Prior knowledge:
By secondary structure, the chain is mainly alpha-helical. 78% of the residues lie in helices and 0% in strands. It has one domain.
Amino acid sequence: xxxxxxxxxxxxxxxxxxxxxxxxxxxxxxxxxxxxxxxxxxxxxxxxxxxxxxxxxxxxxxxxxxxxxxxxxxxxxxxxxxxxxxxxxxxxxxxxxxxxxxxxxxxxxxxxxxxxxxxxxxxxxxxxxxxxxxxxxxxxxxxxxxxxxxxxxxxxxxxxxxxxxxxxxxxxxxxxxxxxxxxxxxxxxxxxxxxxxxxxxxxxxxxxxxxxxxxxxxxxxxxxxxxxxxxxxxxxxxxxxxxxxxxxxxxxxxxxxxxxxxxxxxxxxxxxxxxxxxxxxx
Length: 282
């Protein structure tokens, strides 16, 4: 029960981070917003790790995988922040929910896992759900929707790399290294796009890093009490605070097509998680 509570508390933190990012996107470049997410995450997380988890602060066993993981999440964040700057938060997140489907589709190639007919059917069904959200042919497909789908693809690859790292690296070390990779790349690129923020914008940029740190810390703590496969379906809870923030602060609320596609994608994802649990126990 403790793991579920910690996991559910994490998702509103990440939804609040997305809300700040969407608000800032009207005046601050997307790349600069992404940089702030990583820079302030490192500023916040590094002292915590040095104070309480110093014994886990060591050179990673798989530095190349850590670098790849950091790059995948960095570019996934760029795509997602770009998408929410144009389309509603809930729509962007729904399209990004294809990540578990991507994991299943690529598992035979990258993880040497056997994927049966039922899970392939769930992947195809989930893709149909994403098409219902976009409705190609009925609505104009814009770059923001494609970017949201791209977020799901990159995040799926990120989850695959994370699976490979979980057996060899401490989660807090992985969290810090991912932040460092994004902060370094973002800092290198900053001179090309930098816009001088106002004091209030600085506060919001710091808040993005703060809520990202709190959210991911809660996720890591939840994983100390339960397996990732058992907690994975609770990730869909993020859509609830996401829709609330979108409605009250940006006057966006999903239509019935969106809800239909969301239900299909979530159902497909949960089915895949259940099949993975069955396969592990057998």
